[in-house]
Amino acid sequence: xxxxxxxxxxxxxxWWLMKEAKLRNPKIKLxxxxxxxxxxxxxxxxxxxxxxxxxxxxxxxxxxxxxxYHGLFIDFIGIWNERWCDTGYVKVLRQTLDQNGYENVRIVxxxxxxxxxxxxxxxxxLASVVDYIGAHYPGVLSPDDAKELGIPxxxxxxxxxxxxxxxxxxxxxxxxQNYVQGLMTSTIxxxxxxxxxxxxxxxxTSLMTAREPWSGNYIVxxxxxxxxHTTQLTEIGWSYLPHGHGVGMLKSGGSYxxxxxxxxxxxxIVVETMSHDxxxxxxxxxxxxxxxxxxxxxxxxxxxxxxxxxxxWQSQLKFGANETSTYFxxxxxxxxxxxxxxxxxxxxxxxxxxxxxxGYHGKHPDPPESAPFPLPFVEDFEKYPLSAEPxxxxxxxxxxxxxxxxxxxxxxxxxxxxxxPIAWCQDTLRLNSSLNLFGRFNWTxxxxxVDMNAGxxxxxxxxxxxxxxxxxxxxxxxxxxxxxxxxxxxxSFKLTNDIKGQKILLEGKxxxxxxxxxxxxxxxxxxxxxxxxxNGVKLFNTQIPSTPANGFVGVGTDIYGYADFDNIYVHxxxxxxxxxxxxxxxxYFVKEEIH
Length: 595
Prior knowledge:
Blueprint: H1 14-24, E1 31-32, H2 52-70, E2 76-77, H3 87-99, E3 106-112, H4 116-122, H5 124-127, E4 132-136, H6 144-147, E5 153-159, H7 165-180, E6 184-190, E7 193-194, E8 208-212, E9 217-219, H8 222-231, E10 239-240, E11 248-249, E12 255-260, E13 267-272, E14 294-299, E15 309-316, E16 326-335, E17 340-345, E18 349-354, E19 377-379, E20 394-397, E21 400-404, E22 411-415, E23 434-443, E24 446-453, E25 463-469, E26 480-487, E27 492-498, E28 504-509, E29 518-526, E30 529-534, E31 537-543, E32 551-557, E33 563-572
Parallel strand pairs: 1-2, 2-3, 3-4, 4-5, 5-6, 7-8
Antiparallel strand pairs: 8-9, 10-12, 11-12, 12-13, 13-18, 14-17, 15-16, 15-18, 19-33, 20-23, 21-22, 22-33, 23-32, 24-29, 24-33, 25-26, 25-32, 26-27, 27-28, 29-30, 30-31
Helix pairs in contact: 2-3, 7-8
């Protein structure tokens, strides 16, 4: 709901992603957490809580839309990612969901830290509607009063660490120790797959990497296999055993947990011995500790006393220049002798011992070779369904949907946001405009042609295209590059060195070139020279700064408002070649036997 008066349940990739996840594992749970909100909910403020009933209705509509339009049932809903939680709103949300038949949707709060515990302790009505206490990046620790509440604790966002071997070590350690030390029964990784351009913020802070749809290349990174030590050998609904009876810290460093099936017939023990330097997460700081090779012995009793052997899976993370890690390898079975099983565990190793025989090391063919972004690049948006978010572009501010305007242009990409959002990243509010970028962070000499329409109703003042764009994400407002703004209302243009349009390199008016409606805008940069034209009429040939020397290509608007873009064409001015459609290239999606 970019605006209050419309709803569209085809926008974005999330519906597709959830449905694909359900196809692979129908038991998977779905959890929605608002990261930001449309500006109309705040009525001119940066708070979504101005009208808690309106906000709850907005969230309810999304949950209902998932079911009605996509057959997806949302199991959990959060409040506001890493921001202040209005406890009155939590109660209104519960009331709204119950009144509309969604009693089974569970509420997680507050998705910031454990500060909400004080409010839950003091407010029995709040305690009755908070189903899970969710904290982000808790560093495997939770306060004692949180543990004593009787409400399940979650690390509802964690990891965010570069997905090399150290990232795998981080993930292996916190998957165990979030429960061992913090009593948290769920650990959720952000982000799932790095499928955005290299050079954007949070590069490779993901479980795996797949950011080249034009080549189909992907990499199954180490954190995937660290996940497998738990997820291959347990199910949602299994329970942790008590501390001291299958859960604890190892004497020579590391940790172990035991999870059991609801019928108590099966169990899995996960052991990790990740050293400090090889398991540092991005946050919070990790106090120093030591780990040594050790012999670990587990005694089986009660309903498990009759178990004669356990299947063993092992990963060894290696960090030497000439060493190779091994991931989730079956070691066969180990005997249980006189009710005990022993294992020699080295440093930076992960073991799973289980009664299950269903563990499986997923296999996949070698992915296609990595390839650079293909140039020249042409995008006319005709092959997209309506409301789609074009997948080769990466919006940093604003929201861009495919719409059909008919006539000569047919389907185009439209910037849809009409007012500043209630932002998660407050720094972006310093820039009341949109940016959608793509390509390579190291592009230098390029020509970009774009058809642009500033819009006549709820439109923008100016539209722009940019090259050598050097910043994005929460730093979008500081982005430098070479930006060409055109303002059809007064036939003006300006060339700037910054996205805010303040570092003006050249400006002027050209009534014969810039017109109302659609304009075909071209900008070429080569070395320290920029050449531009509009509708075939040359605007300038001028010198430009050498900084930044390279960056992304992008389009956007000077303020929030409707604006249309079509027929994007980019080529490298040092290797000129014929135009072709990138959409004619096969686009690959990962379909793995990795559970």
